[in-house]
Write a structure and sequence with these properties.
The complex is a heterodimer. Chain A contains 23 helices and two strands. By secondary structure, chain A is mostly helical. Chain A starts with 20 loop residues before the first helix and ends with a helix. The chains are: A mainly alpha, B mainly alpha.
Chain lengths: 529, 470
Amino acid sequence: MTLSAITQQSVGAGIFSSAFLLSILIWLPVIVAVGIAIMPNPRGRYDTLIKQIAFFANLVTMFILFIAYNQFENFLPTMQYEEKIAWLPAIGVTYHLGVDGPGIAMLMLSGLVGIASVLASIGIRERVRTYFALLLLAQASVNGAIVARDMFVLILFWGASIVPIALLILGWGGPRRVGAAWRLVGYWGLGTAALAVGVLALYAVTGGRTFDMDTLLGTAQSPRIQIGVSIAMIVAGATRLPLFPLHGWLRDALAEAPVGVAVVVSGAASRLGAFLLLRVVIGAEPAAAHLLSPVLAALAALTVGYAALAAIRSVDIRHAGAYLAMVPGGITLLGLAAISPLGIAGSVLSLFTGGLAAALIAGVCATVAERAQTRSLLLLSGLAPRMPNIAWIFLLAAFALLGVPVFASFASEVMTFFGAFKTQPIGAFAVAIGLAITAVALAALLGRVLFGSPNSDAPGVSDAALGETWYLGILAGALLWIGLFPGGPKIPGTDTPLFDPGFVSQIAAGVSDITSNYTLPASAAPAAQ
Amino acid sequence: MRYAVLVPEALVVALAVAVLLAGRFGWMPRTSRAYLPQVTALVVLVAFGIELWAGASVTTYFGGALIQDRFALFAKAAALLTAAIALAATDWAAEDSLHIGIAMPLLSAFGVMVAASAGDMLGLWAGLELAAAAAVVMVSLRRPDLALRLLLVGGVATGLILFGLAFLYATTGNSDLSAIRDVLANRAPTLALALPMLLLAAGLAVRAGIAPFHVAGLPAGVGASPLGAGLVVGLTAVAAGTVAIKLVTALIPIPAVYMLYADVLAAVAMVGGGAAALAVRSPRPRLAYLAVGQLGWVTAGLATHYRSGIAASLFLLGAFAIAATCGPALLGRAEGGEPAIAGLGAVRPVRAAGIGLAMLSLAGAPPLAGFFGELTVAAALAQSGNFVLLGLGLLGLVMSIAAVIGTLRVLYIQSPLEEARRGAAAALPAVTGLSTAGAVAFCVVIAAYGVFGNPILGLADQGAEALGLR
């Protein structure tokens, strides 16, 4: 299976254009967040209005994003919707934004997760104004990190997400929220410091004139520099994704965070780690990528294996959900470690599908815990008849995580494994074993929670509310949609896309540019044989 | 028009003296006193405007004793803007004396202005002492014991600095800064030069309250009134930083004689400040330790001995001046520790935003003034290959941000104290039109400093160039 670019434009393409389209995606949530924060709300009178504002802000963002996605020229290997304004010329900082295929995949993921997180937060009752302002700031910072084409801007947005997310956990989290928040700050802070060191090392060796990615990542470096920078980037990425052994924040952060925040963290914010590795290590440091690819494969295998075993041993459903949310990150990393066009293309798709699957499993586990009024797996049993909606979505989440056909994660896992078995057979085999253990963990979890014998000692149970069903449905629906229509639906009898030009085609733009370092030129191939 | 450049200094000093005399002799009717902070802040803003308009001309006065260049323009403008915002944002109900409380920040800002435009060692020393003396006066109003301690420690700092300057004069035969640079251009680093540098570095570190020399000055600042604390933690340290930058540029031909001291001081301050901020919970000491951490970054910029590093230090010093001076003023009394500011986001939203932004900026959190300044210094450190110091700085930065998150939690997530349980130590800041406007102005400046930082960093770069760096 390969990704092929198409030149067909879908209906509605070209109806909207803005020179600041990407800026709107970043700054609209920020402006709305500031507006919400300063809006008078005596005794919580406007709590519902604030939730509606946050929801519609996300909906408008998603609408703009969908236009951007629709008008994205998938046959161009270059960055699109670029914005470039000199910011601090004295040290070479430019406000440079742009997206390519992987970037548009991440933006779509962030948009969907944003809507889902607001819907998952409908039940927030305390300090509603502050909660939604912080949530929007967190989303804006994730969007900013995705579209940044200047390393200074990347550090800015990467670091900016720490404070709002930590405050959201501290303010609205579960009983162990304080430890969870500090751990998140510690690990993400370490990652941000590693990112800064890597970026500044690149800045120094390229002459200290600019932070622009085109220059920093486009300049050929000695293998020694490449390895040093790549190790810093791997530390930064591993703390975010997270990868074993830098996953220490994950369990408590996802288990203690309010559901909406757990969705944002597991779905979008954590995928930035893999996105960074794709951009810098795989995309720009080929010598280091070749040398470190076995290390990446080993990290992928350890992550998937550890997550699966930890999920089996968990006695808390939210802990189990948190560990299971680590699995897609390992698969994405395996695709990157493959350093083959197919593996890398698979990992680009896996960025999106893995983010959705991780958000779905973390979200559904949190929702079960809320609806069943307990997190203990010793008490949760036989819930399927009493919460049918959640039971269905739980099943879909498990299938999506495992990459069952008809889900988009199937395509990404097939591409990843096919790519990786060629170049990293041991790592791919180990990840496959980890995935099998994940299946066991999921089967045990589903069997006990949904289909076990009902526990008479357990507290009362209710099914998902409308908002919860919708947020989980959006995440599962997106995975199904792309699994069923990877090329987008067509106008009957024609090859013209109906309204979706095809996710798999759109995100392929720019991937060939990244994979060109790992493809033998056509003329050199026979000689090599 | 030649003397128009000196108008801001004249305005500030005249205003300070007039306010002091009016307070001493009771010239001002009680009803008019309420408008004094407004009028003063407005006059300082006018002085700031004149500085920006007239200060662009490069000239010298008094036979080279005062130099108006881009460096002076930057530092003087920063001091004036800091003083204006601090005067506006202060909760005057929490201050011990209206007249002295207004006059001392003006004199402290004047001290920074004198140091910034000093052409010789005498001017540097005079400016520094003036800024520090004003802080001692402010502390003495509330805690004479702590003021005495601050005075004694300041005396030690003065002694060290004077010894250092005297040694430097003896070694180079000059007190003029540009002449010293010319003399040192062909000299090799010697022990005779390294020794005065050690004294100077120690003296300036004590004056600025850089870790580990903060043990004396910091408690004094914490015990003072809000604006007094701002002067100790902020403007006095800015004066020391200004002097340090001017001295470093004079010694730039032989960086080996001071680089080690700057490296060690920067490392200790960045890591120590961050760790101490994490260890304490009370907001004012936390803010003071965050300021120590950021001063470490300023010192790290000096250790690079490049134009980009010095410019970055100056750029960061501007951000530091505003956040470190106005932060305690915004914090108000807050002597009751964390509970005093619990839930302030709900009851005093603008002031709480100001406190949060001040702390975040001092910690170096994106996208605020301190972040841009620290990343600019970090870029200079990377260019000079000093990755050890860079790593230590980033470690301190992470600890500082973690500390600030703790305070933000108290500000925005905890519930406010019940009115009945609030004592004088936890009294809510009074809300006035001026204090709200001051807090809003502070928030705008801190948020916009980096976002619209191009002209500011450009001016800082020209300031470094004006000091003879290429």
